[in-house]
Amino acid sequence: MEKGVALLLEGMNIPDWEKDPNFRDTPARVARMFEEMLTPSKNNWTAFPARSADLIILRGHRVVAICPHHLQPVDVTAYVGYIPNKTTIGLSKLARVVEQHLTIPIMQEDLAHAIVESLEQRLDPKGVGVVLVGIHGCMKFRGVESTGDVVSSVMKGVLLLNAAARGEFLQLIGRP
C-alpha cells in the first residue's frame, strides 16, 4: 500500500515529496490509517436465551466506511434492530456486527444487507431491520458537493411484513 501511496503523491505532482517533512512519511501513515479503518474488533457473538419477543434496537452507532468507487470516507450512522426468536445477543454485539463488515471498501446498501444477513444467520430472529444514514465524501467534496445524506433501509421478517412492527421500529429510531 505504501508503494501505491507513493505513486499517488508522484501523480499529484508533488516535487521531491520524499524530502519534504510534510510528505516524507505520508505513505506509511496512509497505510496505517487504512489498516486501522479496515480492521474491526472481533465479534464473539455472545448469545443468551431470549426471554421475550421485544424489539431490541441500537440507535445512532457511528462508523466510518470507505466508498469503493472513489475510496472516500462515508460517515455512517447505523440503526439496527431485531425481534428475538429463541436467542438474543449481548448489546455491544449489535455495534460489532456493523463494524465487522468494514474490512474492505463497501457500498452503503451492501453494508445494510450484510448486517441483516449476519443477524439472520446467527440469531434466526422473528424480524430484523437496518437503516444506515451516510454522508459520502465523494458527494460532499467533489461532483455535486452535496451536504445531503443517503439513507439505506433493509427489513426482513416481521419488520418487513407487519406494518405495525415496522412502524414501531421506525418510530423508535427517530427520523434519521
Commentary on this structure:
- The chain has 176 residues and is an alpha+beta fold.
- The chain has two domains: 2-37, no CATH class; 47-173, GTP cyclohydrolase I, C-terminal domain/NADPH-dependent 7-cyano-7-deazaguanine reductase, N-terminal domain (GTP Cyclohydrolase I, domain 2), CATH 3.30.1130.10.
- Helices cover 38% and strands 26% of the residues.
- The protein contains seven helices and six strands.
- It has helices spanning 2-11, 26-37, 91-99, 108-123, 137-140, 158-161, 163-173; strands at residues 47-49, 56-66, 73-83, 87-89, 127-136, 150-157.
- The strands form two sheets. It has a four-stranded antiparallel β-sheet, sandwiched between helices. A two-stranded antiparallel sheet has the order 1-4.
- β2 and β3 form a beta hairpin.
- α1 (2-11) packs across α2.
- It is elongated, with a radius of gyration of 20 Å.
- The model has no long low-confidence stretch (mean pLDDT 93).
Brief sketch in words of this structure:
The protein is of the alpha+beta class and 176 residues long.
Instruction: Report the total helices.
Output: 7
Number of E-state strands: 6
Number of domains: 2
Structural class: alpha+beta
Q: Which spans have pLDDT < 50 for at least 5 consecutive residues?
A: none
- How is the main sheet built? 4 strands, antiparallel
What assembly state would you assign to the polypeptide chains in this entry?
A: single chain
What order do the helices and strands follow? HHEEEEHHEHEHH
In the CATH classification, which architecture of the largest domain applies? 2-Layer Sandwich
> What is the fourth-level CATH superfamily of the largest domain?
GTP cyclohydrolase I, C-terminal domain/NADPH-dependent 7-cyano-7-deazaguanine reductase, N-terminal domain
Query: What's the gyration radius in Å?
Result: 20 Å
